Amino acid sequence: MAEAEEHRSPILGEMAPDFEAVTTHGKMKLSDFRGKKWVVLFSHPADFTPVCTTEFIAFTQIYPELEQLNVQLLGLSIDSVHSHLAWVNNVKEKMGVRIPFPIIADLDMKVAKLYGMIHPGMSSTAAIRAVFFIDDRGVLRAMIYYPLTNGRSMPEILRLIKALQTTDKYGVATPANWQPGEKVVVPAPATAAQMEKRLSEGYECKDWYLCFKKI
To answer: Given 16, 52, 73, 126, which residue is catalytic?
Structure first.
């Protein structure tokens, strides 16, 4: 039962589990951002590791755009705050990159277990590469998981945030490979009357259930 508890993940569409944690920017609660900002919470296996270092540099590169999208970026690993600070300093000294976002110290694995970041098939002491997208109401909207061996795609993280925000703003869905500026999907009709009506509403329809529009 205890093992199942560690494996559980939060559920899309529900409130993201709240937590209070020590970070490289001081103590903070996830709920501090509710009603103010979106949050991208991501875990990495360990400080001073090669793939994680490349990811932190890549996250830093997209950080200004995330800020423009009203997104707070939060990193996490099962390391101490002292280890995080030493690593941040090392990245600045050796790579010339200043990490601008907070990194959560999760030595007791409290947050990692709360979010199902520990997968024993990968490691019992390191978090996998998980990404959680939490909207400004505190609702968990999307999750992406990667193994320890493979770094994440920053363009996809940006694309998904923009897609979710577009869905909220316009009440639409986004098709496969959607990029900002491209046509979006009009929600499918729920009644026969809606089905007949939509064919005369000026959308680009492939059939009654698949219609696109520009926004």
So the answer is: 52
Section 156-161 average pLDDT? 98
| Beta bridge partner(s), residue 143 | 132
Reported as a pLDDT band with limits 50, 70 and 90, residue 200 is confident
The full set of domain ranges for the chain reads 2-153, 171-213
CB 174 within 8 A of CB 142: no
CATH of region 171-213: 3.30.1020.10
Strand order in the sheet with 210-213: 184-185, 210-213, 204-207
What count of other Cβ atoms lies within 10 Å of the Cβ of residue 122?
16
HSE, CB side, 13 Å, CA atoms: give it for residue 106.
Answer: 28
Residue 79: DSSP 8-state: S
pLDDT digits (tens, 9 = 90+) for 111-125: 999 999 888 888 766
Q: What percent of the chain has pLDDT over 70?
A: 95
Given a cut of 50, is residue 1 above it in pLDDT? no
Q: Does domain 2-153 have CATH number 3.40.309.10?
A: no
- pLDDT tier, 2 (very low <50, low <70, confident <90, very high otherwise): very low
Task: Report CA Rg, the chain.
Answer: 20
Question: Can 205 be counted among the known catalytic residues?
Answer: no
Strand pairing report for 20-23 and 26-29 = antiparallel
Q: Is there a contact between 60 and 92 (Cβ–Cβ < 8 Å)?
A: no
